[in-house]
Amino acid sequence: MTFDLLTIFPAIFTSPLAESLLKKAQDKGLIRVRVHNLRDFTQDKHRMTDDYPYGGGAGMVMKPEPVIRAVEWIKEKNPGAKSVLLTPQGERFHQRLAKEMSGHNHWILICGRYEGLDERVRLAVVDREISIGDYILTGGEVPALVFIEALSRYIPGVVGCGKSVEEDSFSQGLLEYPQYTRPPVFREMVVPEVLLSGNHAQIERWRRRESLRRTWQRRPDLLEKASLSAEDKDFLQELKNQKEIDGHN
Ligand code: JBZ
């Protein structure tokens, strides 16, 4: 899978791409990430990527020409590439979208800055618009990294142990159960005995229940969509009954 990043701050990507999962994925040739400086696609002597907004108002707007020239240059050389604009006005990104978009193997990611991009960029070259969530950010660079990491995890070989992609929290639709490692007692806090028992059936049952408990406590909205067995539903009913008795969790 190839990602072509368009940004006026290419250095933002240096460390995130040079560590851990994304570094290994690149080293194995499973993903290729190219960072392009939008300034290199300007044609004026000051290499300007922004300008004042027509109609007035605070802040600057990204000029259309450098972005459009960059996207068209990449698309000419790579006819299969699709472009994504990271923008607060985009479709909300989530796991299902990550999985679906991982089915396409070349993405051009347009990272906006300032108050936004000239509208004609959208009209001329943008195929999709994505937002990673409702919080205020200053640019599309961090959202672009989120996008790259989330899609990369669906490429076979990127995530170490093959099964853990779909096993991870969101894919299952429930939050993760609590994890423990050595030592067995730390500051008088003990590891649940069942985890030391070696009884794998009991361990699986405990983990499932703790996942259900956490999800019910912290993200009850997720329970609506999760696929639940009869035993899961019984356990959740127990939690709810318990709460009515205790008056708390
Ligand atoms: C995003 C102007 O550049 C921005 C600013 C905020 C922002 C993005 C790009 S993408 N927020 C999001 O994914 O929510």
Task: Give me the secondary-structure topology.
Elements: E1 2-7, H1 14-17, H2 20-27, E2 32-37, E3 50-51, E4 61-62, H3 64-77, E5 82-92, H4 95-101, E6 106-111, H5 119-125, E7 128-131, H6 141-152, H7 164-167, H8 169-172, E8 185-186, E9 189-190, H9 193-196, H10 200-218, H11 220-223, H12 230-246
Parallel strand pairs: 1-2, 1-6, 5-6, 5-7
Antiparallel strand pairs: 3-4, 8-9
Helix pairs in contact: 3-5, 10-12
Bound molecules: 6-methoxy-1,3-benzothiazole-2-carboxylic acid.
Residues 86-88, 112-114, 116, 131-133, 137-140, 143 line the site of 6-methoxy-1,3-benzothiazole-2-carboxylic acid (JBZ).
Task: Write a structural description.
- By secondary structure, this protein is an alpha/beta fold.
- Helix content is 42%, strand content 16%.
- It contains 12 helices and 9 strands.
- It has helices at 14-17, 20-27, 64-77, 95-101, 119-125, 141-152, 164-167, 169-172, 193-196, 200-218, 220-223, 230-246; strands at 2-7, 32-37, 50-51, 61-62, 82-92, 106-111, 128-131, 185-186, 189-190.
- A hairpin with a 2-residue loop joins strand 8 (185-186) and strand 9 (189-190).
- The structure holds 6-methoxy-1,3-benzothiazole-2-carboxylic acid.
- 6-methoxy-1,3-benzothiazole-2-carboxylic acid (JBZ) binds at residues 86-88, 112-114, 116, 131-133, 137-140, 143.
